[in-house]
Design a protein that fits this description.
- Helices cover about 60% and strands about 0% of the residues.
- The chain is an all-alpha fold and about 240 residues long.
- The longest helix has 15 residues, at about 120-135.
Length: about 240
């Protein structure tokens, strides 16, 4: 698990903060996306999967494409982006930094990329900027998978216009499988925190505000460090959202 043990993390989180997460852990079991990741790694070790050097790039593209969209709409835009480079969900291998940059350099970004993919201008420019960062070496699969490089990765990603704290947190949590991510900008995490601890905040309707209530959220999740990614995951369960 990228240098940390899921069993240790679940044990720690089950005991932390007077065991408040233990009923959720018992009810829902380990986070599914971690289990899928472990299975994928074992398959790769057995040689049944081809090493994917652009997996993180595609993950970033998908996060950007789905920004501010509901689930079905996000999936539709993702499929349209894949189709632009003759890729599919079953075989997304054609979606690479070079395939995106080739469209921009040899065609028209508006008619050959943005419009057919259904992207906004800002999302399209962001995806092109991400591709350029891979080409110039600012980003790479090696860097993004490097243990202990969270601050460096976060800084590099936030330097790309269109990648904000929420997008970076989603990437670190669900793609890089970092152990200690607390995505305060995520509504589900805030709602789950409010529901579990029965606290009200300064947002509309008594919800927790990502800015005004940041200190409260950080304090409530403090005992789960260095495994706040796990406590964050179970906030989705408290919010009634799939995770």
């Amino acid at each position: 698990m990228g240098g940390w043990c899921l069993v240790d993390g679940l044990t720690h989180c089950g005991l932390a903060s007077n065991g408040i997460l233990l009923p959720l852990i018992r009810e829902h079991g380990p986070p599914a996306f971690y289990i899928d990741h472990i299975k994928d790694k074992k398959s790769e070790e057995k040689g049944s999967c081809v090493d994917d050097e652009h997996k993180s790039f595609r993950s970033l593209c998908r996060i950007v494409a789905g920004q501010q969209l509901a689930g079905n709409a996000a999936k539709t835009i993702w499929r349209r982006l894949l189709s632009v480079v003759d890729a599919t969900e079953d075989d997304p291998s054609n979606l690479t930094p070079e395939s995106i940059l080739s469209i921009v350099e040899n065609g028209d970004m508006e008619s050959d990329l943005r419009s057919p993919a259904g992207l906004s201008n800002a999302k399209c420019r962001c995806i092109v900027a991400i591709a350029s960062s891979y080409r110039d070496g600012s980003l790479s699969e090696v860097l993004l998978s490097k243990e202990g490089a969270d601050d460096d990765v976060r800084s590099r990603l936030l330097n790309i216009k269109g990648l904000g704290p929420w997008s970076v947190d989603m990437f670190l949590l669900f793609q890089c499988h970092r152990s200690n991510v607390l995505p305060i900008g995520d509504l589900a995490v805030r709602n789950g925190t409010s529901n579990l601890w029965k606290v009200k905040g300064k947002a509309k309707g008594g919800g927790l505000c990502p800015k005004k209530d940041e200190a409260v959220i950080v304090k409530l999740h403090e005992d789960f460090a260095p495994y706040r990614s796990i406590s964050s995951y179970f906030m989705y369960k408290c919010s009634g959202m799939k995770g």
